[in-house]
Amino acid sequence: MSLLIDADVGVLVVLHGAIGNEMHADVRDLVADLESDAAGTAGRPVQVLAEQVTLFGLPGIWLLLELRRAARPAVVTLVRPSPAVRDAVARHNLAGLAIVD
Prior knowledge:
It is a single chain. The protein has helices at about 25-35, 60-70, 85-90, and strands spanning about 1-5, 10-20, 45-55, 75-80, 95-100. By secondary structure, the protein is of the alpha/beta class. Strands 1-2-3-4-5 form a five-stranded mixed beta sheet. Strand 2 (about 10-20), helix 1 (about 25-35) and strand 3 (about 45-55) form a beta-alpha-beta unit. Helix 1 packs parallel to helix 2 (about 60-70). The chain is globular. This is STAS domain-containing protein.
């Protein structure tokens, strides 16, 4: 999991592999950065590259919710989400995300 910030574009989060309970500490750290705005992410558009995700558990859902909150009023866009991400988003009925294939 990587968080990249471009002053002109916004925030880019790159996810790959399994985003499960073992990633909870990493997700918590990233969310803490978002909450404190330490990385200058508040109100910026967020893109999440998620095509290489093999498992998307509750820490991943929590991350998307926090990204959506940090991005307001801008949008969180899932770019080419893997089937695991699509299934989790649908199962948890997450709204307010744009999906781009």
